[in-house]
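A reminder before we start the practical. When you read a complex entry, don't treat the lines as separate problems. The point of joint prediction is that each chain is placed relative to the others, so the output describes one connected object in space. Small molecules and nucleic acid strands, if listed, are placed in the same frame. In the example below there are two entries. Take a minute to note the order of the lines before looking further.
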Amino acid sequence: MLKPPDWHLLIVWYFFLGGIAGGAYFTAAIADNFGSARDKSVFRVGYVLALLLVSVCGILLILDLGTPSRFLNMLKSFKFWDPMSIGAWMLGVFGMFAFGSSALSFMGGEGMARLRRRLSLIGIISGFFIAAYTGVLLSATAMPFWREARLMGALFLASGASTGMAAISLFLYLFGESAGEGYKKVKRADRYAIMFELVVLAVFLALLGGAAGPIVSGHLAPLFWGGLVVAGLVIPLLLDVSGLRLPGAVPAALVLVGGFILRYVIVMANA
Amino acid sequence: MARTLAMFTDTSLCIGCRACQVACKEWNELPSEQPEWTGSYQNHATFTDKTYRLVRFIEKPQANGELSWLLMSDVCKHCAQAGCLDACPTGAIYRTEYGTVNINQDVCNGCRYCVSSCPFGVVSFNHETGRANKCTFCNDRIHNGLGPACAKTCPTESIQFGFRDELVTKAGKRVAALKDMGYKEAQLYGADSNGPLGGLNAFFLLLDKPTTYALPEKPALPQRNVIVDSLLSVGSALLVGVGALLAFRQRGRADGGAVKAGAATDGDAKDGGHA
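Here is the predicted structure of the whole assembly.
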Protein backbone atom coordinates (compact mmCIF):
# COMPACT_ATOMS: atom_id res chain seq x y z
CA MET A 1 0.00 0.00 0.00
CA LEU A 2 2.99 2.27 -0.44
CA LYS A 3 2.59 5.39 -2.50
CA PRO A 4 4.93 6.60 -5.22
CA PRO A 5 5.89 10.27 -5.02
CA ASP A 6 4.45 11.21 -8.37
CA TRP A 7 7.84 12.24 -9.71
CA HIS A 8 8.13 12.32 -13.47
CA LEU A 9 10.33 13.61 -16.27
CA LEU A 10 11.41 16.85 -14.59
CA ILE A 11 12.92 14.82 -11.79
CA VAL A 12 14.45 12.30 -14.22
CA TRP A 13 16.14 15.19 -16.04
CA TYR A 14 17.28 16.68 -12.76
CA PHE A 15 18.84 13.42 -11.56
CA PHE A 16 20.52 12.99 -14.96
CA LEU A 17 21.85 16.53 -15.39
CA GLY A 18 22.77 16.82 -11.72
CA GLY A 19 24.86 13.67 -12.10
CA ILE A 20 26.65 15.11 -15.12
CA ALA A 21 27.22 18.43 -13.35
CA GLY A 22 28.74 16.72 -10.31
CA GLY A 23 30.75 14.29 -12.44
CA ALA A 24 32.05 17.02 -14.75
CA TYR A 25 33.11 19.11 -11.77
CA PHE A 26 35.02 16.43 -9.90
CA THR A 27 36.63 15.23 -13.11
CA ALA A 28 37.69 18.80 -13.88
CA ALA A 29 38.99 19.29 -10.35
CA ILE A 30 41.10 16.14 -10.58
CA ALA A 31 42.40 17.11 -14.03
CA ASP A 32 43.17 20.59 -12.72
CA ASN A 33 45.02 19.46 -9.61
CA PHE A 34 46.75 16.31 -10.77
CA GLY A 35 46.98 16.63 -14.56
CA SER A 36 49.31 18.70 -16.66
CA ALA A 37 48.96 22.20 -18.06
CA ARG A 38 47.80 20.67 -21.32
CA ASP A 39 44.64 19.44 -19.62
CA LYS A 40 43.39 23.01 -19.43
CA SER A 41 40.69 22.34 -22.02
CA VAL A 42 39.39 19.46 -19.89
CA PHE A 43 38.95 21.37 -16.67
CA ARG A 44 37.66 24.48 -18.36
CA VAL A 45 34.93 22.51 -20.16
CA GLY A 46 34.21 20.58 -16.97
CA TYR A 47 33.81 23.64 -14.74
CA VAL A 48 31.67 25.54 -17.24
CA LEU A 49 29.52 22.50 -17.95
CA ALA A 50 28.95 22.06 -14.21
CA LEU A 51 27.95 25.72 -13.87
CA LEU A 52 25.53 25.64 -16.80
CA LEU A 53 23.95 22.36 -15.77
CA VAL A 54 23.55 23.24 -12.11
CA SER A 55 21.62 26.32 -13.22
CA VAL A 56 19.34 24.14 -15.33
CA CYS A 57 18.98 21.78 -12.37
CA GLY A 58 17.77 24.59 -10.14
CA ILE A 59 15.16 25.58 -12.72
CA LEU A 60 13.95 21.98 -13.11
CA LEU A 61 13.47 21.57 -9.38
CA ILE A 62 11.65 24.86 -9.03
CA LEU A 63 9.35 24.02 -11.95
CA ASP A 64 8.56 20.65 -10.42
CA LEU A 65 7.03 22.32 -7.37
CA GLY A 66 4.29 23.85 -9.49
CA THR A 67 4.38 27.14 -7.60
CA PRO A 68 7.96 28.36 -8.08
CA SER A 69 8.08 30.75 -5.11
CA ARG A 70 7.51 27.82 -2.76
CA PHE A 71 11.10 26.81 -3.38
CA LEU A 72 12.00 29.43 -0.79
CA ASN A 73 10.28 27.29 1.86
CA MET A 74 13.18 24.83 1.53
CA LEU A 75 15.57 27.58 2.56
CA LYS A 76 13.82 28.25 5.84
CA SER A 77 14.82 24.88 7.19
CA PHE A 78 17.94 22.74 7.42
CA LYS A 79 17.90 19.07 8.38
CA PHE A 80 21.27 17.40 8.23
CA TRP A 81 19.76 13.90 8.23
CA ASP A 82 17.38 14.60 5.36
CA PRO A 83 18.83 14.12 1.85
CA MET A 84 16.31 16.49 0.28
CA SER A 85 17.04 19.28 2.74
CA ILE A 86 20.84 19.03 2.54
CA GLY A 87 20.54 18.55 -1.21
CA ALA A 88 18.69 21.82 -1.69
CA TRP A 89 21.37 23.66 0.25
CA MET A 90 24.27 21.83 -1.38
CA LEU A 91 22.93 22.64 -4.82
CA GLY A 92 23.51 26.29 -3.95
CA VAL A 93 26.96 25.58 -2.50
CA PHE A 94 27.92 23.53 -5.54
CA GLY A 95 26.67 26.31 -7.82
CA MET A 96 28.98 28.77 -6.08
CA PHE A 97 31.98 26.47 -6.46
CA ALA A 98 31.13 25.87 -10.12
CA PHE A 99 30.83 29.60 -10.68
CA GLY A 100 34.11 30.38 -8.92
CA SER A 101 36.03 27.65 -10.72
CA SER A 102 34.57 28.58 -14.12
CA ALA A 103 35.38 32.24 -13.68
CA LEU A 104 38.93 31.50 -12.48
CA SER A 105 39.54 29.14 -15.40
CA PHE A 106 39.27 32.12 -17.73
CA MET A 107 41.72 34.26 -15.77
CA GLY A 108 45.42 34.18 -16.48
CA GLY A 109 48.29 34.21 -14.04
CA GLU A 110 49.83 31.62 -11.75
CA GLY A 111 48.20 33.16 -8.67
CA MET A 112 44.74 32.71 -10.14
CA ALA A 113 45.57 29.18 -11.20
CA ARG A 114 46.70 28.31 -7.68
CA LEU A 115 43.54 29.80 -6.23
CA ARG A 116 41.43 27.86 -8.74
CA ARG A 117 43.11 24.57 -7.81
CA ARG A 118 42.67 25.18 -4.09
CA LEU A 119 39.03 26.14 -4.62
CA SER A 120 38.27 23.04 -6.65
CA LEU A 121 39.97 20.79 -4.06
CA ILE A 122 37.30 21.92 -1.60
CA GLY A 123 34.56 22.11 -4.22
CA ILE A 124 35.23 18.53 -5.31
CA ILE A 125 33.36 17.38 -2.20
CA SER A 126 30.24 19.21 -3.33
CA GLY A 127 30.69 17.69 -6.81
CA PHE A 128 30.74 14.16 -5.42
CA PHE A 129 27.83 15.07 -3.20
CA ILE A 130 25.63 16.37 -6.02
CA ALA A 131 26.29 13.25 -8.08
CA ALA A 132 25.49 10.83 -5.26
CA TYR A 133 22.91 12.40 -2.97
CA THR A 134 19.95 11.90 -5.31
CA GLY A 135 20.55 8.16 -5.03
CA VAL A 136 20.69 8.31 -1.23
CA LEU A 137 17.51 10.40 -1.38
CA LEU A 138 15.69 7.61 -3.19
CA SER A 139 17.13 5.06 -0.82
CA ALA A 140 15.74 6.92 2.20
CA THR A 141 12.13 6.25 1.20
CA ALA A 142 9.76 3.41 1.96
CA MET A 143 9.83 2.05 -1.62
CA PRO A 144 11.49 -1.42 -1.63
CA PHE A 145 12.97 -1.06 -5.12
CA TRP A 146 14.69 2.17 -4.13
CA ARG A 147 15.74 1.33 -0.61
CA GLU A 148 16.76 -2.28 -0.41
CA ALA A 149 20.06 -2.44 -2.30
CA ARG A 150 21.66 0.34 -0.23
CA LEU A 151 23.82 1.13 -3.27
CA MET A 152 21.65 3.68 -5.05
CA GLY A 153 23.95 6.55 -4.06
CA ALA A 154 27.06 4.62 -5.11
CA LEU A 155 25.43 3.72 -8.43
CA PHE A 156 24.34 7.29 -9.13
CA LEU A 157 27.83 8.50 -8.34
CA ALA A 158 29.38 6.00 -10.76
CA SER A 159 26.88 7.04 -13.40
CA GLY A 160 27.54 10.71 -12.67
CA ALA A 161 31.23 10.00 -13.26
CA SER A 162 30.75 8.10 -16.51
CA THR A 163 28.26 10.63 -17.91
CA GLY A 164 30.16 13.68 -16.65
CA MET A 165 33.34 12.44 -18.30
CA ALA A 166 31.44 11.50 -21.47
CA ALA A 167 29.94 14.99 -21.59
CA ILE A 168 33.38 16.59 -21.26
CA SER A 169 34.80 14.39 -24.01
CA LEU A 170 31.79 15.08 -26.22
CA PHE A 171 32.27 18.84 -25.93
CA LEU A 172 36.02 18.55 -26.47
CA TYR A 173 35.26 16.58 -29.61
CA LEU A 174 32.74 19.15 -30.79
CA PHE A 175 35.21 21.97 -30.13
CA GLY A 176 37.78 20.16 -32.26
CA GLU A 177 40.05 19.33 -29.32
CA SER A 178 39.99 15.59 -29.89
CA ALA A 179 43.66 15.46 -30.87
CA GLY A 180 44.80 16.77 -27.50
CA GLU A 181 46.33 14.89 -24.59
CA GLY A 182 43.49 15.97 -22.29
CA TYR A 183 40.89 14.37 -24.52
CA LYS A 184 42.68 11.03 -24.39
CA LYS A 185 42.95 11.22 -20.63
CA VAL A 186 39.31 12.00 -20.07
CA LYS A 187 38.43 9.10 -22.39
CA ARG A 188 40.62 6.83 -20.32
CA ALA A 189 39.07 8.08 -17.10
CA ASP A 190 35.63 7.45 -18.58
CA ARG A 191 36.64 3.90 -19.43
CA TYR A 192 37.48 3.24 -15.77
CA ALA A 193 34.25 4.89 -14.67
CA ILE A 194 32.17 2.72 -17.02
CA MET A 195 33.89 -0.45 -15.80
CA PHE A 196 33.28 0.62 -12.22
CA GLU A 197 29.65 1.45 -12.98
CA LEU A 198 29.11 -2.02 -14.48
CA VAL A 199 30.51 -3.63 -11.34
CA VAL A 200 28.37 -1.45 -9.04
CA LEU A 201 25.31 -2.13 -11.16
CA ALA A 202 25.88 -5.89 -10.97
CA VAL A 203 26.26 -5.79 -7.18
CA PHE A 204 23.24 -3.48 -6.96
CA LEU A 205 21.04 -5.94 -8.86
CA ALA A 206 22.36 -8.89 -6.89
CA LEU A 207 21.60 -7.18 -3.58
CA LEU A 208 18.14 -6.10 -4.74
CA GLY A 209 17.19 -9.61 -5.79
CA GLY A 210 13.45 -9.87 -6.29
CA ALA A 211 12.92 -6.17 -5.56
CA ALA A 212 14.70 -5.40 -8.85
CA GLY A 213 11.69 -6.80 -10.73
CA PRO A 214 10.41 -3.47 -12.06
CA ILE A 215 13.55 -2.91 -14.12
CA VAL A 216 14.94 -6.37 -14.83
CA SER A 217 11.72 -8.07 -15.89
CA GLY A 218 8.90 -5.53 -16.07
CA HIS A 219 7.89 -3.27 -18.95
CA LEU A 220 10.99 -1.16 -18.34
CA ALA A 221 13.28 -4.19 -18.77
CA PRO A 222 13.97 -3.74 -22.53
CA LEU A 223 14.97 -0.14 -21.89
CA PHE A 224 17.12 -1.13 -18.94
CA TRP A 225 18.95 -4.05 -20.55
CA GLY A 226 19.07 -2.71 -24.10
CA GLY A 227 19.39 1.02 -23.51
CA LEU A 228 21.54 1.15 -20.39
CA VAL A 229 23.46 -2.10 -19.98
CA VAL A 230 24.17 -2.92 -23.63
CA ALA A 231 24.02 0.38 -25.54
CA GLY A 232 24.98 2.68 -22.69
CA LEU A 233 27.78 0.75 -21.00
CA VAL A 234 28.99 -2.41 -22.74
CA ILE A 235 29.07 -1.10 -26.33
CA PRO A 236 30.89 2.17 -25.48
CA LEU A 237 33.39 0.15 -23.48
CA LEU A 238 33.94 -2.33 -26.31
CA LEU A 239 34.24 0.50 -28.86
CA ASP A 240 36.83 2.11 -26.63
CA VAL A 241 38.86 -1.05 -26.01
CA SER A 242 38.64 -2.34 -29.59
CA GLY A 243 40.23 0.86 -30.87
CA LEU A 244 37.74 1.05 -33.73
CA ARG A 245 38.19 4.21 -35.73
CA LEU A 246 34.83 5.71 -34.85
CA PRO A 247 34.24 9.38 -34.11
CA GLY A 248 34.78 9.82 -30.35
CA ALA A 249 31.37 11.45 -30.12
CA VAL A 250 29.60 8.11 -30.67
CA PRO A 251 30.58 6.26 -27.48
CA ALA A 252 30.23 9.48 -25.48
CA ALA A 253 26.69 10.03 -26.76
CA LEU A 254 25.81 6.40 -25.99
CA VAL A 255 27.06 6.76 -22.41
CA LEU A 256 24.97 9.91 -21.99
CA VAL A 257 21.82 8.26 -23.31
CA GLY A 258 22.53 5.30 -21.00
CA GLY A 259 22.85 7.64 -18.02
CA PHE A 260 19.49 9.18 -18.81
CA ILE A 261 17.90 5.74 -19.14
CA LEU A 262 19.31 4.70 -15.75
CA ARG A 263 17.55 7.63 -14.03
CA TYR A 264 14.45 7.14 -16.15
CA VAL A 265 13.89 3.47 -15.32
CA ILE A 266 14.70 3.97 -11.66
CA VAL A 267 12.34 6.92 -11.17
CA MET A 268 9.60 5.62 -13.46
CA ALA A 269 9.61 2.15 -11.89
CA ASN A 270 7.77 3.77 -8.99
CA ALA A 271 5.80 6.38 -10.92
CA MET B 1 4.84 18.34 26.04
CA ALA B 2 1.36 17.40 26.98
CA ARG B 3 0.47 13.80 27.64
CA THR B 4 0.50 11.85 24.38
CA LEU B 5 -2.89 11.34 22.82
CA ALA B 6 -3.77 8.31 20.77
CA MET B 7 -6.44 6.54 18.83
CA PHE B 8 -6.97 2.85 19.38
CA THR B 9 -8.81 1.08 16.59
CA ASP B 10 -10.17 -2.26 17.72
CA THR B 11 -10.93 -4.02 14.44
CA SER B 12 -12.81 -6.81 16.23
CA LEU B 13 -15.60 -4.30 16.90
CA CYS B 14 -15.75 -2.76 13.43
CA ILE B 15 -18.96 -3.39 11.53
CA GLY B 16 -17.86 -1.65 8.34
CA CYS B 17 -20.48 1.10 8.50
CA ARG B 18 -17.99 3.75 7.34
CA ALA B 19 -19.46 6.38 9.64
CA CYS B 20 -15.86 7.30 10.53
CA GLN B 21 -15.00 7.81 6.89
CA VAL B 22 -18.00 10.10 6.43
CA ALA B 23 -17.49 12.00 9.70
CA CYS B 24 -13.88 12.62 8.69
CA LYS B 25 -14.97 14.00 5.33
CA GLU B 26 -17.58 16.21 6.91
CA TRP B 27 -15.45 17.67 9.65
CA ASN B 28 -12.45 18.22 7.40
CA GLU B 29 -14.60 19.48 4.51
CA LEU B 30 -13.19 16.89 2.13
CA PRO B 31 -15.15 16.57 -1.12
CA SER B 32 -16.52 13.27 -2.35
CA GLU B 33 -14.65 11.29 -4.97
CA GLN B 34 -15.70 9.04 -7.79
CA PRO B 35 -16.08 5.51 -6.35
CA GLU B 36 -13.94 2.85 -7.95
CA TRP B 37 -14.15 -0.92 -8.25
CA THR B 38 -11.63 -2.35 -5.82
CA GLY B 39 -12.78 -5.96 -5.85
CA SER B 40 -14.65 -5.66 -2.56
CA TYR B 41 -16.91 -3.20 -0.77
CA GLN B 42 -13.88 -1.10 0.03
CA ASN B 43 -13.71 2.40 -1.37
CA HIS B 44 -11.20 3.75 -2.15
CA ALA B 45 -8.33 1.38 -2.74
CA THR B 46 -5.88 3.61 -0.87
CA PHE B 47 -5.82 6.80 1.14
CA THR B 48 -6.22 9.81 -1.09
CA ASP B 49 -5.82 13.53 -0.65
CA LYS B 50 -9.54 13.61 0.09
CA THR B 51 -9.88 10.41 2.15
CA TYR B 52 -8.05 10.40 5.48
CA ARG B 53 -10.02 7.56 7.11
CA LEU B 54 -10.46 4.43 5.09
CA VAL B 55 -12.40 1.33 6.07
CA ARG B 56 -10.66 -1.69 4.63
CA PHE B 57 -12.84 -4.66 3.65
CA ILE B 58 -10.74 -7.79 3.50
CA GLU B 59 -12.29 -11.06 2.38
CA LYS B 60 -10.66 -14.00 4.07
CA PRO B 61 -11.36 -17.60 3.04
CA GLN B 62 -12.48 -19.81 5.92
CA ALA B 63 -11.69 -23.49 6.45
CA ASN B 64 -15.14 -24.43 5.13
CA GLY B 65 -14.52 -22.50 1.91
CA GLU B 66 -16.75 -19.56 2.75
CA LEU B 67 -15.48 -16.03 2.95
CA SER B 68 -15.42 -14.00 6.11
CA TRP B 69 -14.92 -10.26 6.51
CA LEU B 70 -12.00 -8.68 8.18
CA LEU B 71 -12.85 -5.03 8.67
CA MET B 72 -10.41 -2.34 9.63
CA SER B 73 -10.81 1.38 9.82
CA ASP B 74 -7.38 2.55 8.74
CA VAL B 75 -5.85 5.96 9.35
CA CYS B 76 -2.54 7.82 9.59
CA LYS B 77 -0.54 6.12 12.34
CA HIS B 78 1.01 9.34 13.72
CA CYS B 79 4.25 7.37 14.21
CA ALA B 80 6.52 8.24 17.12
CA GLN B 81 9.35 8.10 14.54
CA ALA B 82 7.69 9.42 11.43
CA GLY B 83 9.27 8.95 8.00
CA CYS B 84 7.22 11.77 6.48
CA LEU B 85 8.30 14.18 9.19
CA ASP B 86 11.98 13.35 8.78
CA ALA B 87 11.72 13.57 4.99
CA CYS B 88 10.07 16.99 4.90
CA PRO B 89 12.67 19.53 3.74
CA THR B 90 10.61 22.60 4.65
CA GLY B 91 9.61 21.77 8.20
CA ALA B 92 5.95 21.80 7.15
CA ILE B 93 5.45 18.42 8.78
CA TYR B 94 5.70 18.80 12.53
CA ARG B 95 4.87 17.05 15.77
CA THR B 96 2.25 18.63 17.95
CA GLU B 97 2.49 18.85 21.72
CA TYR B 98 0.11 15.87 21.86
CA GLY B 99 2.51 13.65 19.91
CA THR B 100 0.51 13.70 16.69
CA VAL B 101 2.02 14.47 13.27
CA ASN B 102 0.58 17.26 11.19
CA ILE B 103 1.27 19.00 7.88
CA ASN B 104 1.27 22.78 7.94
CA GLN B 105 -0.40 23.50 4.61
CA ASP B 106 1.02 27.03 4.38
CA VAL B 107 4.60 25.79 4.58
CA CYS B 108 4.39 22.62 2.45
CA ASN B 109 5.93 23.32 -0.94
CA GLY B 110 4.76 20.24 -2.79
CA CYS B 111 8.05 18.35 -3.20
CA ARG B 112 6.21 15.03 -2.55
CA TYR B 113 9.16 13.42 -0.77
CA CYS B 114 6.96 12.63 2.25
CA VAL B 115 4.51 10.70 0.05
CA SER B 116 6.99 7.89 -0.65
CA SER B 117 8.64 8.17 2.77
CA CYS B 118 5.53 6.95 4.58
CA PRO B 119 5.86 3.22 5.35
CA PHE B 120 2.06 2.96 5.21
CA GLY B 121 1.24 4.94 2.06
CA VAL B 122 -0.79 7.45 4.02
CA VAL B 123 0.44 10.84 2.85
CA SER B 124 -1.15 11.97 -0.42
CA PHE B 125 -0.50 14.77 -2.84
CA ASN B 126 -3.31 17.17 -3.65
CA HIS B 127 -2.94 18.28 -7.25
CA GLU B 128 -5.30 21.22 -6.77
CA THR B 129 -3.41 22.86 -3.90
CA GLY B 130 -0.04 21.44 -4.93
CA ARG B 131 0.59 20.32 -1.35
CA ALA B 132 0.66 17.06 0.58
CA ASN B 133 -2.02 16.22 3.09
CA LYS B 134 -3.19 13.48 5.41
CA CYS B 135 -5.16 12.87 8.60
CA THR B 136 -4.63 15.75 11.02
CA PHE B 137 -5.83 13.78 14.07
CA CYS B 138 -8.50 16.53 13.95
CA ASN B 139 -5.91 18.97 15.17
CA ASP B 140 -8.50 21.71 15.55
CA ARG B 141 -10.76 19.47 17.64
CA ILE B 142 -8.11 18.08 19.99
CA HIS B 143 -6.92 21.61 20.70
CA ASN B 144 -10.43 22.41 21.82
CA GLY B 145 -10.93 19.45 24.09
CA LEU B 146 -12.76 17.26 21.59
CA GLY B 147 -11.82 13.87 20.22
CA PRO B 148 -11.25 13.25 16.52
CA ALA B 149 -14.46 13.19 14.47
CA CYS B 150 -14.00 9.52 13.48
CA ALA B 151 -13.68 8.34 17.09
CA LYS B 152 -16.57 10.54 18.19
CA THR B 153 -18.90 9.09 15.60
CA CYS B 154 -17.96 5.40 15.75
CA PRO B 155 -21.16 3.60 16.86
CA THR B 156 -19.40 0.48 18.17
CA GLU B 157 -16.45 2.17 19.88
CA SER B 158 -14.16 0.39 17.51
CA ILE B 159 -12.26 3.67 17.35
CA GLN B 160 -11.35 4.95 20.79
CA PHE B 161 -9.63 8.21 21.62
CA GLY B 162 -7.73 9.04 24.77
CA PHE B 163 -4.37 9.18 26.50
CA ARG B 164 -1.96 6.74 24.93
CA ASP B 165 -0.84 4.98 28.10
CA GLU B 166 -4.43 4.33 29.20
CA LEU B 167 -5.46 3.06 25.77
CA VAL B 168 -2.48 0.69 25.59
CA THR B 169 -3.46 -0.87 28.92
CA LYS B 170 -7.04 -1.21 27.75
CA ALA B 171 -5.94 -2.73 24.44
CA GLY B 172 -3.80 -5.31 26.23
CA LYS B 173 -6.79 -6.50 28.24
CA ARG B 174 -8.93 -6.69 25.13
CA VAL B 175 -6.38 -8.86 23.29
CA ALA B 176 -6.24 -11.24 26.26
CA ALA B 177 -10.05 -11.45 26.31
CA LEU B 178 -10.22 -12.16 22.57
CA LYS B 179 -7.58 -14.86 22.83
CA ASP B 180 -9.66 -16.51 25.55
CA MET B 181 -12.60 -16.40 23.19
CA GLY B 182 -10.59 -18.33 20.62
CA TYR B 183 -9.24 -15.60 18.37
CA LYS B 184 -5.76 -17.06 18.23
CA GLU B 185 -4.28 -14.46 15.89
CA ALA B 186 -5.58 -11.46 17.82
CA GLN B 187 -2.71 -9.03 18.29
CA LEU B 188 -1.86 -5.40 18.79
CA TYR B 189 -0.20 -3.44 16.02
CA GLY B 190 1.89 -0.42 16.94
CA ALA B 191 1.03 -0.37 20.64
CA ASP B 192 4.56 -1.13 21.84
CA SER B 193 6.54 2.08 22.15
CA ASN B 194 9.75 0.02 22.02
CA GLY B 195 8.60 -1.61 18.79
CA PRO B 196 8.98 -0.50 15.16
CA LEU B 197 8.89 3.28 14.59
CA GLY B 198 8.86 3.86 18.35
CA GLY B 199 5.22 2.88 18.46
CA LEU B 200 2.22 4.30 16.63
CA ASN B 201 -0.04 6.92 18.16
CA ALA B 202 -2.88 5.46 16.15
CA PHE B 203 -2.54 1.78 16.94
CA PHE B 204 -4.70 -1.21 16.16
CA LEU B 205 -6.02 -4.48 17.40
CA LEU B 206 -5.94 -6.95 14.51
CA LEU B 207 -7.61 -10.34 14.22
CA ASP B 208 -5.01 -11.68 11.82
CA LYS B 209 -1.41 -11.15 10.76
CA PRO B 210 -0.57 -7.53 9.81
CA THR B 211 0.16 -8.59 6.23
CA THR B 212 -3.44 -9.77 5.84
CA TYR B 213 -4.40 -6.13 6.36
CA ALA B 214 -1.69 -4.95 3.93
CA LEU B 215 0.29 -3.59 6.86
CA PRO B 216 4.08 -4.08 6.89
CA GLU B 217 5.24 -6.68 9.42
CA LYS B 218 8.14 -4.55 10.62
CA PRO B 219 7.83 -1.00 9.27
CA ALA B 220 11.20 0.75 9.26
CA LEU B 221 12.10 4.40 9.39
CA PRO B 222 13.28 5.18 5.82
CA GLN B 223 15.95 7.57 7.05
CA ARG B 224 17.75 4.67 8.73
CA ASN B 225 19.33 4.08 5.32
CA VAL B 226 21.00 7.46 5.08
CA ILE B 227 24.23 6.79 6.97
CA VAL B 228 25.15 3.44 5.40
CA ASP B 229 24.15 4.56 1.91
CA SER B 230 26.15 7.75 2.31
CA LEU B 231 29.22 5.81 3.43
CA LEU B 232 28.88 3.47 0.47
CA SER B 233 28.63 6.54 -1.77
CA VAL B 234 31.82 7.90 -0.23
CA GLY B 235 33.50 4.56 -1.03
CA SER B 236 32.22 4.85 -4.57
CA ALA B 237 33.56 8.41 -4.78
CA LEU B 238 37.00 7.29 -3.61
CA LEU B 239 37.20 4.53 -6.23
CA VAL B 240 35.96 6.82 -8.99
CA GLY B 241 38.40 9.49 -7.82
CA VAL B 242 41.31 7.05 -7.88
CA GLY B 243 40.35 5.99 -11.42
CA ALA B 244 40.28 9.59 -12.62
CA LEU B 245 43.52 10.31 -10.78
CA LEU B 246 45.27 7.42 -12.51
CA ALA B 247 44.01 8.64 -15.88
CA PHE B 248 45.14 12.22 -15.33
CA ARG B 249 48.24 12.02 -13.14
CA GLN B 250 51.29 13.13 -14.98
CA ARG B 251 53.01 15.73 -12.92
CA GLY B 252 56.78 15.27 -12.85
CA ARG B 253 56.63 12.46 -15.40
CA ALA B 254 58.20 12.39 -18.80
CA ASP B 255 55.72 11.96 -21.64
CA GLY B 256 57.18 8.55 -22.42
CA GLY B 257 55.77 7.30 -19.12
CA ALA B 258 52.20 7.95 -20.13
CA VAL B 259 51.71 4.70 -22.04
CA LYS B 260 53.20 2.66 -19.22
CA ALA B 261 51.04 4.44 -16.66
CA GLY B 262 47.95 3.76 -18.77
CA ALA B 263 48.73 0.06 -19.00
CA ALA B 264 49.32 -0.22 -15.27
CA THR B 265 46.15 1.63 -14.34
CA ASP B 266 43.85 -0.74 -16.19
CA GLY B 267 44.60 -3.43 -13.66
CA ASP B 268 44.31 -1.04 -10.73
CA ALA B 269 40.84 0.08 -11.72
CA LYS B 270 39.61 -3.46 -12.10
CA ASP B 271 40.95 -4.45 -8.71
CA GLY B 272 39.31 -1.39 -7.21
CA GLY B 273 36.00 -2.27 -8.80
CA HIS B 274 35.91 -5.75 -7.37
CA ALA B 275 36.92 -4.67 -3.89
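Discuss with your neighbour: Chain B has a mean pLDDT of 91. What might explain this?
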